[in-house]
Design goal:
Elements (H helix, E strand, L loop, with lengths): L63 H13 L4 E6 L6 H11 L4 E7 L15 H9 L6 E5 L5 H7 L3 E4 L9 H12 L3 E4 L8 H10 L3 H10 L6 H9 L5 E6 L1 E9 L3 E2 L6 E2 L2 E10 H10 L3 E9 L5 H13 L3 E7 L4 E8 L2 E8 L7 H16 L4 E8 L7 H11 L3 E8 L14 E2 L3 H8 L6 H12 L3 E5 L5 E6 L15 E6 L12 H14 L4 H16 L9 H12 L8 H7 L27
Parallel strand pairs: 1-2, 1-4, 2-3, 4-5, 6-11, 6-15, 7-13, 11-12, 15-16, 16-17
Antiparallel strand pairs: 7-10, 8-9, 13-14, 18-19, 19-20
Helix pairs in contact: 4-5, 8-17, 9-15, 11-12, 13-14, 15-16, 16-17
Length: 618
C-alpha cells in the first residue's frame, strides 16, 4: 500500500525572535512576534485549533478489480494479507477484538462484508445496509481494505484474493457447516491458513438486535408492524404519490385568513393583573378551504376551489390578493360574492407558544340565490372532463355551509366524483350531514361532540357515524395519540348486521411528528393527502399512512404551509430508513415511480421482502 508523506511538523511554542525572524507584521490573522501555523492562525496555545473536516475512509472500500490489483501488489512486495469475512451488522466490541487480533497476524487487514441480498437472518435484517456497514469498518484505523461480497458465501472471493491468513471466530473451530468447510478448503488449497480468533469475549449482533427489538416502545413497535405490510413498502407509496399528479379535485368550503401576530414576551399590566403583549411582526396564511387547495396543488393535483369571497369592502383587496396567489400556484378559483368581510383568525404567539386567539368572523350574508349559485359552481366543476377524480366538502363552521347546503353538495357531488371526502372543524359544523362519502376525517372530539357520546367506545361512535351518513370509512384523529382508520367489516352471510358484534375494523397509525411545533392545519394536510391517495387507487391503510405523514410535516411548521409531493417522498424515506441508509442504483430505480423494473433474474434471492428497500433521490 502506498505510503503518504507526513505533514511537516510545526511548533506552537513562542520562541525568542532572532535576526532571521521577520519583523513584526500587521498582516490580518497573524500576531506580531508569534510564528503562525500552516493554517494561517496565530499559534496561541490557549486558542482551539481550527475546525477541519474529518478524513474520509471511503478510499479503503474497493470493488473486486481494484482489490485484485492491491492483492497482487502486496504479494509482489512480500506483505502478508489477512482476511476476515462476515455480516458485521452492528460493529460491537467483540468485532473490534476479533479484527485487532487478525491485524496482528499480518501486514494488511482485508475485511469483506456479505451484501444485503446474501443475508438470511429474518425479516428486517441486516439492520444496517451494506454500504454503511462497509463504511463503519473502513473507519477503523487498523482496517486497510474493505470489500462488499455479493456472493452467498466467501468461497469465490477467497479463491480470487487468496489471503495468506483467513481468520474466523472461535465458534467455527468445531463448526461442520458445509459453507465454512468449502471456505477453509479454498484457503488451504491456495497455500493459506485458517486461524481462529481467541474468543475471549463473545457478542452476537443477532442477540443485540433482538434485545433492542424487545425493549422498543409501543409507538416504534407499531410503526415496525406497519412497515412490514406490503402495501406500505416504499415503492408502492411512491407510486401512489406519483399518481397524485393531474388528479382533478373539487374543493368546496369557506376561506379563512389566518394571521399570526408574533409578540415580545408577555408582562403583567400595572393597572390590573392582565397580560400585556407587544406585537413585533404579522404573518398571513391562507386557511380554510384555500389551504386544502394549496396542499392539493403542491402535491401535484389540479384543484378547483369553490368558495365565497368579498368583492367590495375593507377585505376585498385581501380577497383579490388571495385569488391571484392561489391562481399562480395552480388553483382554479371559482367563487360567489359575499357581502361580509373575509373571515380572519388572529393568533398571538410568544416564540412558538400561542397565548391568545381572536376570531374576526362576521355572520354570513349570502342570500339563497348565491347559495344556489355555489352549488351549481360545484356541480359544473365536478362534471367537466367526464367527472372529477375527487371532491372534498370542508365545513369550517362559519355559516356558509348550513346542514341543508352540506346535504345538497353531497348529493350533487357524489355521482360526479370517484372519491367524495368530507371534514368538519368546530362545534358549529355539520358532520352528520355529510352523506354517502368515501371518507370522513373528524377529530375524536368533533365526532363525540356531534353525537354527544363522551363515554362510549370510539368504535361504537364511529359505527353510528358510518350507519347514519352511509359513509364507507372514517379516519379519526386523536392528537398526540395519532389516528385510527375505520372501515366497515363485512357481515357474514346469513347474519343480521345488528347481531354482528365487530361491525368496524380499525388501523392505528401513531403520531409521526417527533415534536408538534404548530397543530394548525394538520387536519387539512391529512384530509388532502388521504383523499388523493384514495383517488390514486390506494387503500384505506395507505391513505391513513400518507395522511398521517402529511400531518406530521405540517405539525413541524409555523402556520399553514403547503405540503408538497417531494416533501412526502422525503418523509417516507426518512421514516422508513431506520434499517436502510443507502441503497444501490437498482433499488433507487425500483423505488422511483417512473423507473423500469429489474429483470426477474436480477432480483435479490431473499426469502421475504425486506421492509427497508426504500430510497428516493428527491
Amino acid at each position: 500500500m502506498a505510503s503518504h508523506p507526513s505533514p511537516p511538523r510545526t511548533s506552537c511554542a513562542l520562541t525568542p525572535r532572532s535576526r532571521t525572524h521577520p519583523p513584526p507584521t500587521d498582516e490580518p490573522g497573524v500576531m506580531p512576534n508569534t510564528p503562525h501555523n500552516p493554517f494561517g492562525h496565530p499559534a496561541d496555545p490557549l486558542q482551539p485549533p481550527p475546525a477541519r473536516e474529518p478524513p474520509s475512509s471511503a478510499h479503503k472500500i474497493h470493488d473486486l478489480p481494484a482489490l485484485a490489483a492491491l492483492r497482487e501488489r502486496a504479494r509482489a512486495e512480500g506483505r502478508r494479507v489477512v482476511q476476515c469475512h462476515g455480516c458485521f451488522d452492528i460493529v460491537h466490541p467483540g468485532h473490534v477484538r476479533h479484527l485487532r487480533y487478525a491485524k496482528a497476524l499480518g501486514d494488511v487487514l482485508l475485511v469483506t462484508v456479505t451484501a444485503d441480498a446474501g443475508i438470511d437472518k429474518g425479516v428486517g435484517r441486516p439492520l444496517i445496509p451494506q454500504e454503511l456497514r462497509a463504511e463503519n469498518l473502513a473507519a477503523l484505523d487498523f482496517v486497510d481494505w474493505v470489500h462488499i461480497d455479493h456472493h452467498p458465501t466467501a468461497a469465490e472471493l477467497l479463491a480470487a484474493v487468496q489471503p495468506d491468513v483467513y481468520v474466523k471466530g472461535r465458534e467455527y473451530e468445531s463448526n461442520d457447516d458445509p459453507r465454512f468447510r468449502k471456505e477453509r478448503e479454498t484457503v488451504e488449497r491456495a497455500g493459506g491458513s485458517v486461524v481462529f480468533s481467541s474468543g475471549d469475549v463473545v457478542f452476537s449482533s443477532t442477540a443485540l438486535i433482538g434485545a433492542m427489538e424487545q425493549s422498543v416502545d409501543p409507538t416504534h413497535a407499531r410503526l415496525a408492524a406497519l412497515h412490514d405490510r406490503p402495501e406500505l413498502l416504499g415503492p408502492r407509496l411512491f407510486d401512489r404519490i406519483a399518481r397524485f399528479r393531474n388528479q382533478r379535485v373539487v374543493i368546496v368550503g369557506e376561506t379563512i385568513l389566518d394571521t399570526y401576530v408574533l409578540c415580545d414576551r408577555p408582562d403583567v399590566a400595572g393597572e390590573s393583573p392582565i397580560m400585556t403583549l407587544r406585537p413585533l411582526e404579522r404573518r398571513h396564511y391562507d386557511g380554510g378551504a384555500a389551504v386544502l387547495a394549496r396542499h392539493a396543488a403542491a402535491m401535484g393535483a389540479r384543484p378547483i376551489l369553490i368558495t365565497a369571497l368579498p368583492t367590495r369592502g375593507p377585505s376585498a383587496e385581501a380577497a383579490e390578493a388571495l385569488r391571484r396567489r392561489l391562481t399562480a400556484e395552480g388553483v382554479d378559483v371559482r367563487c360567489v360574492r359575499q357581502d361580509h368581510a373575509l373571515a380572519e383568525k388572529q393568533r398571538f404567539l410568544v416564540g412558538t407558544q400561542k397565548v391568545m386567539k381572536l376570531d374576526l368572523v362576521e355572520p354570513p350574508a349570502i342570500d339563497a340565490a348565491r347559495l344556489d349559485e355555489l352549488v351549481q359552481l360545484a356541480t359544473d366543476a365536478a362534471s367537466e372532463h367526464g367527472g372529477a377524480d375527487a371532491a372534498i366538502i370542508a365545513d369550517f363552521g362559519l355559516g356558509l355551509l348550513t346542514p341543508a347546503m352540506v346535504r345538497r353538495l353531497s348529493k350533487a357531488l357524489r355521482p360526479r366524483a370517484r372519491v367524495l371526502a368530507g371534514d368538519v372543524s368546530g362545534k358549529r359544523s355539520h358532520l352528520r350531514d355529510l352523506e354517502h362519502a368515501d371518507l370522513l376525517c373528524p377529530s375524536e372530539s368533533e365526532l363525540r361532540e356531534a353525537y354527544q357520546a363522551h363515554a362510549e367506545g370510539l368504535p361504537v361512535v364511529v359505527w353510528e357515524l358510518l350507519q347514519e351518513t352511509k359513509a364507507a370509512a372514517a379516519i379519526v384523529t386523536m392528537g398526540p395519540e395519532g389516528l385510527v382508520a375505520f372501515d366497515r367489516l363485512a357481515v357474514p352471510e346469513g347474519a343480521r348486521a345488528e347481531q354482528w358484534p365487530s361491525r368496524v375494523r380499525g388501523e392505528h397509525v401513531p403520531a409521526l411528528a417527533p415534536i408538534a411545533v404548530d397543530a394548525l392545519g394538520c387536519g387539512d394536510a391529512l384530509l388532502t393527502a388521504a383523499t388523493l391517495t384514495l383517488a390514486a387507487g390506494g387503500d384505506l391503510v395507505q391513505a391513513a399512512y400518507l395522511g398521517a405523514l402529511s400531518a406530521s410535516l405540517e405539525a413541524q411548521r409555523i402556520g399553514n404551509v403547503p405540503v408538497a409531493a417531494s416533501d412526502l417522498r422525503r418523509a417516507v424515506v426518512r421514516l422508513q430508513s431506520a434499517t436502510l441508509a443507502f441503497a444501490d442504483s437498482e433499488v433507487l430505480r425500483a423505488a422511483h415511480p417512473h423507473a423500469s423494473k429489474r429483470p426477474e433474474t436480477q432480483q435479490p434471492t431473499t426469502q421475504q421482502p425486506r421492509r427497508a428497500t426504500i430510497a428516493e433521490a428527491s
